[in-house]
Amino acid sequence: MGTDMTTATTISTSARTEILRRISVANGGTSDAAAAGAAWEHLAREYRRKAVLQPESVLDLLEDRLRDYDAHVERVRRGDVADVVAKMLATRGKRRMVIPAGIAPEWLPAGFEFVADEGMTAIELDGFDGVMTGSTVAIAETGTVVLQNVPGQGRRAVTLVPDYHLCLVSAADVVETVPEAMEGLRGKAELATTFFSGPSATADIEMTRIKGVHGPRHLDVILIL
C-alpha cells in the first residue's frame, strides 16, 4: 500500500510539473528549468521574511489567532500531554479516535480507543469520533497549522473526514511568518501538505457561515512547551 501511494504521488507531482511547464511556455515563459529558477531567485522580495517577536510573543500570537478562528488552545509541558489529551477528549465526549501511524505513544492516554489508520475508506473514517495528529509547523501571524503526509500526521483524508481534530503542535515548530514556514517546507515540496487555520468554515452566497464543509467542525490544539 505504501509503495503504491508513493508511486502515485510521484506520478501526480511529475504530471503537475509538466502541466505548469506547458502553461508557462504557452504564456511566453521559458521552458528551461534552470532559467526559470534563476528568474525566480532574482524576484524582488520586499515583504518581511524574518521574525521580529520574541519566542513567547510568537506563541501568544499563534494562540490569539487560533482562538479568534474558534479553536480551543491549551499549553502544556511535554510530560503532561497525555493528561491534557484525556481531559480534552472527555470534555468533547470523544472516545474512539483514529490516529496516524507513528504518533508518539506517550501522547495516548488510557481509557480511550485509538485506532491506527491503515488506508481506511472515507466511510470508515467518518465512523470515528475524531482524529488526533501531530504537525509539521505552525504560523503565528496567520494562525495556520501545517500537516504533511509523514509518520505522526498521516494522510490528508484522515484529517479532513472526521468531524473533530485534536492537533498537537510543538512550540519549537512555531514560526512567526509565512516565509519562514515556506522556507522550512522547501525540501518537502513533494509531500501532500495541508494548511488549516481553525476549524473548517466557509460562507455561501448570502454570507451565511457554515462549519465543517471542507474538514472538521471542531478543533482543539495542544501547544507542547
Count helical runs: 7
- What is the percent of helical residues? 25-40%
N-to-C span: 35 Å
- CATH fold call of the largest domain: Rossmann fold
The CATH H-level superfamily of the largest domain is NagB/RpiA/CoA transferase-like
The largest β sheet comes out as: 6 strands, parallel
Contiguous runs where pLDDT drops below 50 for at least 5 residues: none
As a whole number of angstroms, the C-alpha radius of gyration is 19 Å
CATH top-level class of the largest domain: Alpha Beta
User: Would you list the SSEs in sequence order as H and E?
Assistant: HHHEHEEHEEEHEEHEEEE
| Global mean pLDDT | 88
Strand order of the largest sheet: 1-12-7-4-2-3
Shape: globular
| % residues in beta strands | 15-25%
Number of domains: 2
Protein name: LUD domain-containing protein
Domain LUD: 128-224
Organism: Edaphobacter paludis
Pfam families: LUD_dom
Descriptive overview:
The structure is a single chain. With about 220 residues, this protein is of the alpha/beta class. The protein has two domains: about 1-45; about 55-225, 3-Layer(aba) Sandwich (Rossmann fold), CATH 3.40.50.10420. Helices cover about 35% and strands about 25% of the residues. The chain has a six-stranded parallel beta sheet with strand order 1-12-7-4-2-3, with helices on both faces. The radius of gyration is 19 Å and the shape is globular. It starts with a helix and ends with a strand. This is LUD domain-containing protein. It comes from Edaphobacter paludis. InterPro entries: FTHF_cligase-like_sf (IPR024185), LUD_dom (IPR003741), NagB/RpiA_transferase-like (IPR037171).
